[in-house]
Amino acid sequence: MIQAENLTKFFGQTQAISNVSFSAAKGEILGFLGPNGAGKTTTMRLLSCFMPPTSGKARVAGYCVMNDSLEVRKRLGYLPENAPLYTHMTTRNYLHFVSEVKGIPAHERSRKVECVIGDCGLQEVSGRIIGVLSKGYRQRVGIAQALLNDPEVLILDEPTAGLDPKQIIEIRDLIKNLAGNRTIILSTHILPEVSMVCNRVIIINDGIIVAKDTPDNLMDQLQKNTRIYLQVDGPKQKIFEQLGNIKGVDKVVNKESTNDSVFSFMVESKGDLDIRNAIAQKIVENRWGLLEIRAVNMTLEDIFIKLVTTESE
Ligand SMILES: Nc1ncnc2c1ncn2[C@@H]1O[C@H](COP(=O)(O)OP(=O)(O)OP(=O)(O)O)[C@@H](O)[C@H]1O
Ligand SMILES: [Mg+2]
């Protein structure tokens, strides 16, 4: 449904994204995860024909975003970051207005408007002025306008930004219900959001894709980079050095110590090597006291930070 190939965008000298390639199948919910300035909005704008790429290609619903932008627009709904809404209009009037702008034939407008009002749970506020609606409802209006042309592809730029926890849950549920036959791409900074809503995640940092996989696979894959927590009774600096010398150890981090002779460390191994035995042996050899040793699972947040910091190092 979506194919992006080496999408690259420069703004003057600034490279916003570089060789971004990915695809999304019909019915999939794909999440773009990345920090501020990563290039999420830029990628979404290229896909929705808001602006052309500097180089690279993308197809949406079978049409090229550069050569067939009209056909792409017909099949695509876009909720921009900070969706602009006409706050003096009522929800229903605004949706009528957008359907006219989108070129929906007059005789179909009422049916389409009532349909998206229903789909987005806007019945209660359909006669109210948008300016007085809560942020959660305004966001629903933004999503409703994106749905008016019954698009095959829905692009939502930070749909839950600025909402309270209850509204966030409601919008996530709404997005999941909208998927079905549609392909949805959404962007977020919120890590748990991708595992809750998306089938697949693309982690983007500094304009470059650093990972793409299902949230579960991503965790499995990176969990292989095992982290071991240990508490040792012995000389801090010497322990630190010796741990770093063990084969397969990638990194040793000092953790806060409980007292002057017992020290805590976090040791990361390379790949999926199990280094617990080697660590225990080293400590015994040195006649230090091993008070605790355990594997620590990585959260999606740890993985994200690891990927993002590794790339920018
Ligand atoms: N119109 C523009 N003119 C110049 N630079 C831009 C423009 N739009 C984006 N950029 C730059 O491109 C890079 C990517 O920005 P983009 O808005 O795509 O990131 P983002 O991932 O959406 O960030 P955020 O999470 O803050 O929304 C940034 O360095 C940004 O400053
Ligand atoms: Mg953005």
Summarize the structure in short.
The chain is an alpha/beta fold and 313 residues long. It has helices spanning 40-47, 69-74, 91-101, 106-119, 135-147, 165-179, 191-197, 215-223, 236-245, 276-285, 300-312; strands at residues 2-11, 14-24, 29-33, 55-60, 63-64, 76-79, 153-156, 183-188, 200-205, 208-213, 227-233, 249-255, 262-269, 289-296.
Please outline the helices and strands.
Elements: E1 2-11, E2 14-24, E3 29-33, H1 40-47, E4 55-60, E5 63-64, H2 69-74, E6 76-79, H3 91-101, H4 106-119, H5 135-147, E7 153-156, H6 165-179, E8 183-188, H7 191-197, E9 200-205, E10 208-213, H8 215-223, E11 227-233, H9 236-245, E12 249-255, E13 262-269, H10 276-285, E14 289-296, H11 300-312
Parallel strand pairs: 3-8, 3-9, 6-7, 7-8
Antiparallel strand pairs: 1-2, 1-4, 4-5, 9-10, 11-13, 11-14, 12-13
Helix pairs in contact: 3-4, 4-5, 5-6
The protein binds adenosine-5'-triphosphate and magnesium ion.
What does the main sheet amount to? 6 strands, mixed
Portion of residues in beta strands equals: 25-35%
Structural class: alpha/beta
Say which CATH homologous superfamily of the largest domain is assigned.
Answer: P-loop containing nucleotide triphosphate hydrolases
Number of strands: 14
* Gyration radius over CA: 25 Å
Give the total of domains: 2
Q: Residue share in helices?
A: 25-40%
- What's the arrangement of strands in the largest beta sheet? 6-7-8-3-9-10
Mean pLDDT: 90
CATH architecture of the largest domain: 3-Layer(aba) Sandwich
Low-confidence stretches: none
The end-to-end span amounts to: 35 Å
Shape: elongated
What small molecules accompany the polymer chains? adenosine-5'-triphosphate, magnesium ion
Number of helices: 11
What string gives the helices and strands in order?
EEEHEEHEHHHEHEHEEHEHEEHEH
Classify the fold: give the CATH topology of the largest domain.
Answer: Rossmann fold
